[in-house]
Amino acid sequence: MTEARKVQPHPAGKCWWCGKPGDSGEHKVKKTDLRRIFTNKKESESIFLSPTAVETNSKLRIMQGPDSKLIKFPNILCKVCNNAQSQPFDRAYTDFIAYYARHRERIMDERSIDFRKIYGRSTWRREVLHLSKYLLKHAGCRIAEQGFKVNESVAAFLNSPAAELPGIHLGMHLDTSLQNLVASETAGEFELRVFLPDLDVHFAESISDTAFGVFKEQRLYYISGKMFIDSLVFEWQVFYEELKSPLRFPFRKPVYNLILTDSVKH
Ligand SMILES: [Zn+2]
Question: Ligand 1 centroid vs 236 CA: distance in angstroms?
């Protein structure tokens, strides 16, 4: 495949969201998540935050605490975007993940999340939209960190009051593989609770060889990634070509059913 890359490089020193000078480093993983995990741990039990696939084990890094520079993005956002602009998104995520932490066992059993119980009956739609925007802010930061220009559709979605997702896929599922890994000897003495696998960057004539057969015969470029918080996995894809079939906002219903997967092949 000799097709030239369509994805442009991220303009260095700029905020990928608004284009102004970047002067703020977003946390890759929320401090509240790290504090919650650290609080229950002995000092020797550090968190792994890996930029690479768990199978290779080649780039695992040990983080000493919630303020580690390992878990901050470089300055790829400006302060306005990272703080005031995204405050409601950050808050929606914090509420969501606090609920998950409190009801983790039940969520694992029932494999569903009722957004109304987290956000309330009258406001869950708005708050789930904010939660989605938090996840896409994270996605944009990871894409820019890797040196790729973030597709305009991401900033357009963040700026839009409506739930429009042109060229973006977003999902959530449960994955037990990290728990299995922790239980196995592979994990050694460490506990693996927060995990950022490598991004997948695809430049293809078509993606008919993937599960997304619906987009067959269409030239498609996309970047995808995942973020594990405990067993909860957030996944996203940002497409760089216009899709024939527009994507639908994934969290339209008050109850979201979580599929159980095991991403690590044993
Ligand atoms: Zn900005």
Answer: 21
